[in-house]
Amino acid sequence: MKTRIHGWGLALLASMALAGCQRQADAVGVDPAAYEAFYLWPGVHPARDVRPRIVYLLDGEVRRGGPSRLERLRMGLPRLPGKTLWLVVRADRLDWNDATYAAIFDDLRRWQEAGNQVAGLQVDFDAATHGIDGYARFLHDLRRRLPRQWRLSITGLMDWSAHGDPRALAALAGQIDEVVVQTYQGRTTIAGYEEYFRRMKDFPIPFRVALVEGGAWQAPPILARHPQFRGYVVFLLSSVKSTRG
């Protein structure tokens, strides 16, 4: 069956196309100097004009294969007085054993005893292929184990579960203190982020939005008026290829 598009329909399609082109033209590259919260992976050093106030530091990974364990990636203890630190653990699996939990909690304690202001733990895990239900059970157990002095944060992918439906993340309310929604893959901003944030209108959990250094970004209007929006986190790049993707 053929569909006939009348003059008004053609005009509507043309206006939508122009609007999309305008949004793309208005987007600018993310300049870290304009922000205050950053992802800082080992080996990456901020430029002199970057002045972090909140820093998410990758401590280690819990990898697939063999017994569960924390593979530390950072040499020595960070000492960043006057800044708020989050200890980040990248996880490829959720079957953590007691030794894994103990190692992570011990690092939180050591970072704090070194004079840092440690906000808590962030788990960087891609639940897309594992299902949100199993992840919710894991986070419930982690929250039960994690000493109450530390908060719990997770990363969230825009293409996570249910075709990027933020309701999948909203189901975790009560288990976590913060979600950091990632808008990039590798070094590039994911297209279509405006639609994702429109669907976050009633999102019940405090959240930040992660941007990649140099990536194209134009803030969706909903963020400025969203009661749970807490600002941005910029993933800093270095001359060495990023380990995140």
Please provide a written account of the structure:
By secondary structure, the protein is α/β, with parallel strands linked by helices. It has a single domain, classed as TIM Barrel. The chain has 6 helices and 13 strands. It has helices at 7-26, 98-113, 132-145, 167-170, 193-198, 221-225; strands at residues 28-29, 37-40, 54-62, 71-72, 84-91, 117-125, 151-157, 178-182, 184-185, 188-189, 207-212, 216-217, 229-235. The strands form 3 sheets. The protein has an 8-stranded parallel barrel with strand order 2-3-5-6-7-8-11-13. It has a two-stranded antiparallel sheet with strand order 1-12. Helix 4 links the parallel strand 7 and strand 8 (178-182). The longest helix has 20 residues, at 7-26. The model is unreliable at 1-22 and 239-245 (pLDDT under 50).
